[in-house]
User: Fold these one by one.
Assistant:
Number 1:
Amino acid sequence: MHKEVFQLFSKKEGAQHIASEYALMAIEKIVKQNNIHSVFEFGIGIGTIPYLLSTLNKRITYYGTEENEFCNSVLAENLGQSIESINYNAISSYLNFNGENKFDFIIIDGLFDDANFLKKIAHDNTLIFVEGDRENQREFLRKTFPKCLINRSISLNKNSKHSPYYDVSSNHFVGGYTLFRLNPNFRNKTSWFLEKIATSLKYKLRMII
Ligand SMILES: C[S@@+](CC[C@H](N)C(=O)[O-])C[C@H]1O[C@@H](n2cnc3c(N)ncnc32)[C@H](O)[C@@H]1O
């Protein structure tokens, strides 16, 4: 579904800031393949990710933060009735979150650097996804969870003509993401190892394509 969701949201106002198709593909795969029933997203934007989650046919509790007036004004329309298939909660700031919930999957796609809050909402098996480059936040996560397994993932595709980012980066590779696995168990270590190899091969391939 990630392709259809990307195409749908690419045509909407505010699309220049939505998650890349590659990131949406990874989010779909991660949610389907792992025991994920709760998601916290920093930076809902125009709603691409909760919409994608609502198509996955899984029981999911979703919390997202969004402070921008324009984004908040279009969310209800962009999400429509689809959102009724997940337990959707939007708040203007993480400071307004007063639940005791811990989340299986945390997506960072907005400004955020509060280590105590992150530790409060993460559990031992949480997966944390950082969309795009966000070098400062990657460094912040590395320091906050020093034992976690980290995979940077990159795409070999370039932005297409239909991409909302085409004008500014037409000859650039599609944005990647970084996945932080908090539990260094055997299963996670195996995935970490395989993904490390895939990324290093992709860096080499990028030099010849
Ligand atoms: C890159 S966009 C998110 C795109 C969105 N995930 C999508 O795929 O449609 C980042 C969003 O985070 C919001 N944001 C940034 N910092 C924030 C903060 N501290 N609290 C709440 N929202 C924030 C911005 O208003 C912006 O809409």
Number 2:
Amino acid sequence: MTNQYKSTKDHIPSIKLRGYERVGYPAPELFGVRLPVNLLTFNLCKTQRDVFLHVTGHSMPETWERYYGRVIHTLYQEILSNILKIVGANSIGSLDLGSSLTNLRNTILASSLRKHRDVLKKVKALFESSELETLQAKLKSDMEKIFCYEKGLSSALVNFELSSLYNQSSGNPLFQKTFALSAGESYNAHVLGFTNPVTPDFRYKNDVVGDIKTGPWRDYYYHTLTAYALSIEAHTRSPVDCGIILHVQILDRTVPIHELARFEVIDDFKRKRFLMIRDEKLRVAKEKVDPGRPVSSKECEGCGFYNHCWEDQM
Ligand code: SF4
């Protein structure tokens, strides 16, 4: 990804549609209507009925897949924030990221699970206990694999940087050079029609935003990056040109698979496409008229509202 960052940065087309320009604001009649970014960027629903259901008080049912995705997502955030803390708090002479992370292993894994205990309670009712045990064992094993992989990768990167820093006495230059990363920062993008706060998964070198995804690949993931870039621009008034989709799959092997991970320029084409959809969704939220469902239930596969919308055919 780092090499891709360098080569892509040299070829960024001119981007005009920034989050801090009025041209990115919603149509005047939609001003003041706001939706959460996850709903604006979830573009599975052809009719935008998911927005109608949301604004009329229906919440998407919890499923194992949603629970799994949240835990893995939180795990990455926990690993990243701990790496940043360790690297920032130690001098170069004493820094041993691999050992520090090993010591924190149980705390990090337990914390990621604890944060979604309430969701697990709702999901439990959907399964027989033996089935649930199998799913939980798989989740824990997947978490271990991610932790081991990220621990190995991040400590190797830090050690590589350490090996080239002979005269430095503080950890900070190292921190800035190797991990020009930040995580968990929130942005205000009310002007774009987004509910506050907007919290991207991570940022890299200020002009790159990152999003972590699990589950099958969806083309609308590009919308999430675009919405994050526009939000940061609206809040900070500085450009965000690129995005990383850190797509994670855990199959029957030790190392997680990032085959579908992407480094993308968030160009005007992506921005225009997303803003068109945003206006469509804000209009449904404003008018609160049921747009109905698509002709075929096939178009709804993977949507959390499936059972609600196709109840008559189940
Ligand atoms: S089930 Fe279909 S119609 Fe209903 S919200 Fe989901 S995608 Fe839209």
